Amino acid sequence: MTIRRYGAGAYLRAAWCGCALLAPLLVAAPAAALELGELQQEPAAAGQAYRAVVPVSLSEAERQGYLIVSAYALVPNGAGGSSRRPLTIQRHGGDSDIHLLGGAPLPGGTRIVVTASSGSATATRSYELAGPAMPQPQLPPAAAAAPAPLPPPVAAAPEAAPLPAEPATPEQPPSLEPARPLPPPYDAGVARRSGQQDQGLYLRPEVELGYEFGGDKLVEVECVDTNDNSTSTPSLRAGSGLIGGIGGHLRPYRRSPLDLRLTFDYKYQSACASVNLQRFRFTLLPTYWFGPRQRFWGGVGVIYETGIKFDGKNLPVENVPGATLGKVDFDDALGGTVQLGWWFVALDYNFLKYSKNGDHLNANSLGLLFTYGFDFR
Fold first, then answer.
1. Which domains does the chain have, with CATH numbers?
2. DSSP tally for the chain: helices H, then strands E
3. In the chain, which end has fewer C-beta atoms inside a 10 angstrom radius, N or C?
4. pLDDT by residue (tens digit) across 165-179?
5. Averaged over 286-304, what is the pLDDT?
């Protein structure tokens, strides 16, 4: 087995290839699909005078962020104008409904205006309520052109002085039931998906798939294609291989920018089915999410590889009849990792050394990872 070391130029070329693969993924942001459906009036519950439901549809990207909703009612008044009343907003039914609540009944002719926004997508829609309109005040009939002649005065006995009139009570506006405050961490005008409150520990499982390349060359294999007798010489490197695994995220609460990621991966590489290198890896990575809607993230952590096995029993040694490379079990390796990602795509660079009987191999690697998390809330 020959151990060789290569300069930094190979790693720079590999990093350039990884960035070229990542560029189209960063541009292809999910399209917005924010829409408001038809308003559906419902029977008012106890303590409520008005209740309605507006369906809302969101894209997968918009479901991950905040949905900001505002609503108000323009109620016609007797003077030919309208007065504005705020409406209380609640979310129910997963991602499909916005509930509007009012403390006073709304007459026919009232216009309800609903505005929802998520990220760069905004939708506004108004609805006019059918039904009996608000009664108009009755004006007194016009007086006749000439007043009727008054009858002649008639002598009458003096009457007792009238009692003083009680002061008129000013007309009280219709009482509005105060809007019930939403439980924290909700703010006024902000509605989130039902059950997604930022309280308590938040755990999110995920799956991971990627490829890493780099490290010292372990062996170079000459492969022959029996179809056309062509030959190739692929090499097996200590840091290269296909990665697949599972893991999870742990946060203090759902919207926290601090995240602790733990993954368990299997890494494998082969050359012409003659030799292969396999290992198991644990990664502990604290990360911090930043940027618009917390889509970017970065972290520095530790990795631990075990079960590092090189299998060359099927590869004969050149000029040595009957000899093969055999098997080599490397010692467990502890190293570090640096990762920078956007949403579900990340670049990583790992620092590792494989050791056996006092000999060391450079197993540093640069890779491109894809992760997908499962949200059960």
1. 35-134+175-191 (2.60.40.1930), 198-373 (2.40.160)
2. 2, 25
3. C
4. 555 555 555 545 555
5. 95
